[in-house]
């Protein structure tokens, strides 16, 4: 069973006084299998964040559906199996790293010794054990993003959904963050990420979906996409140009 399955998923927003329609996702069909690192790429406004919000049950589709492990995103069992890292993880600066994790852990129903064990384990994963009592206002952007990932891992989910996970990080922090995601994948986590950094995709993903104006215009392995050109950026830009004529 796919970890994420979208069936004819469509989202139409209505904006302004005239309630003008904006089709952010259009009959999207997609399957993400267990154990994959899947990247959804596309230009600004393609619909990537809308897809993530639908998959997390934060928005409802206009038509079609998205299922996680065969279930709607809103059921508690599904929520317990998904970890989410938003594009810019942000928490009050006076909180210490450990307090942040305690707060999020309690929100997901963890208590007592189990919560402490999970906090220790995730701090180890993201290499922030030494900073557990540091207020997050002293954290660099990279450290904050790693704390965000620790938060997403607290309840030991099978699926991690990462929205532009390395946007705003410097090259060294980005490199470290990618290595961390690969290690989590090797440890069995399915990873779904949203990005417009093509370099990111080439370095990390097993499969890629290319989204443009709410439509999935191509899905394939990085190796397959690279059959058409030497670098992924050229392939993706060519595909986007080709589809710009049609859409
Ligand atoms: N709440 C909203 N109300 C109305 N329109 C919206 C809303 N959210 C997004 N949109 C529109 O839907 C389309 C898709 O937006 P979305 O944020 O999903 O794209 P994206 O691929 O994540 O873009 P970016 O890379 O810039 O974050 C855009 O045209 C956007 O303006």
Automatic annotation (TrEMBL):
<dbReference type="GO" id="GO:0005524">
    <property type="term" value="F:ATP binding"/>
</dbReference>
<dbReference type="InterPro" id="IPR003439">
    <property type="entry name" value="ABC_transporter-like_ATP-bd"/>
</dbReference>
<keyword id="KW-0547">Nucleotide-binding</keyword>
<keyword id="KW-0067">ATP-binding</keyword>
<protein>
    <submittedName>
        <fullName>ABC-2 type transport system ATP-binding protein</fullName>
    </submittedName>
</protein>
<keyword id="KW-0813">Transport</keyword>
<dbReference type="Pfam" id="PF00005">
    <property type="entry name" value="ABC_tran"/>
</dbReference>
<comment type="similarity">
    <text>Belongs to the ABC transporter superfamily.</text>
</comment>
<dbReference type="InterPro" id="IPR027417">
    <property type="entry name" value="P-loop_NTPase"/>
</dbReference>
<dbReference type="InterPro" id="IPR003593">
    <property type="entry name" value="AAA+_ATPase"/>
</dbReference>
<feature type="domain" description="ABC transporter">
    <location>
        <begin position="4"/>
        <end position="238"/>
    </location>
</feature>
<dbReference type="GO" id="GO:0016887">
    <property type="term" value="F:ATP hydrolysis activity"/>
</dbReference>
């Amino acid at each position: 069973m796919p970890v994420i399955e979208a069936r004819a998923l469509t989202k139409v927003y209505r904006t302004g006084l005239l309630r003008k329609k904006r089709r952010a996702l259009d009959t999207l069909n997609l399957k993400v299998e267990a154990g994959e690192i899947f990247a959804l790429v596309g230009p600004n406004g393609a619909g990537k964040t809308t897809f993530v919000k639908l998959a997390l049950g934060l928005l409802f589709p206009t038509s079609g559906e998205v299922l996680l492990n065969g279930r709607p995103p809103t059921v508690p069992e599904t929520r317990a199996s998904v970890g989410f890292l938003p594009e810019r993880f942000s928490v009050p600066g006076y909180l210490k790293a450990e307090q942040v994790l305690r707060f999020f852990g309690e929100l997901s129903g963890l208590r007592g010794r189990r919560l402490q064990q999970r906090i220790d384990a995730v701090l180890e994963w993201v290499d922030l054990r030494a900073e557990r009592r540091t207020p997050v206002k002293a954290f660099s952007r990279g450290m904050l993003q790693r704390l965000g990932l620790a938060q997403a891992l607290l309840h030991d989910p099978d699926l991690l959904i990462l929205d532009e996970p390395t946007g705003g990080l410097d090259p060294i922090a980005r490199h470290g963050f990618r290595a961390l995601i690969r290690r989590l994948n090797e440890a069995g986590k399915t990873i779904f990420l949203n990005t417009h950094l093509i370099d990111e995709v080439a370095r990390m993903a097993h499969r890629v979906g290319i989204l443009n104006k709410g439509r999935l215009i191509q899905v394939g392995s990085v190796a397959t996409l690279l059959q058409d050109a030497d670098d992924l950026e050229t392939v993706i830009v060519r595909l986007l140009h080709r589809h710009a004529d049609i859409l």
